[in-house]
Design goal:
Elements lengths: L6 E6 L6 E6 L7 E3 L1 H5 L7 H23 L6 E13 L2 E14 L5 H14 L1 H5 L3 E8 L2
Parallel strand pairs: 5-6
Antiparallel strand pairs: 1-2, 2-3, 4-5
Helix pairs in contact: 2-3
Length: about 140
Amino acid sequence: MAIKRTGSAVWQGGLKDGKGEVSLESGALSGYPYAFSTRFEGQKGTNPEELIGAAHAGCFTMALSKILGDAGLTADKMETSAEVTLDKVGEGFEVTQIHLTLKGKVPGADQKKFEELAGKAKEGCPISKLFNTKITLDVQLAE
């Protein structure tokens, strides 16, 4: 059972003076702008790293929901952010690290159990398996 999803990009011009648009098959983003300035200079728009971060946070949190369910637990709420680090390495750039920060309220779970199950989700989510980089995780269980 292969599931295929599509994201696309259009680019016009050179690296620094060019501009592009990204779109998602679902239509959640359609022709959303990105450029050198949105990636490297903090200008308004998106960039590949924040899109990867959103995808990773979403995948990880969904995987954790399944793992919690397998353990007989259900989260009231979980919030995950994924900080994607892009560094200059040699002549180019690489994603060198992704740091996940998870805050969750899970009745019946203690901090140790929540950390254990979150670690399994970090290792097992399909997006985590995609990356050849260091992935770290902070977990905070709300009372």
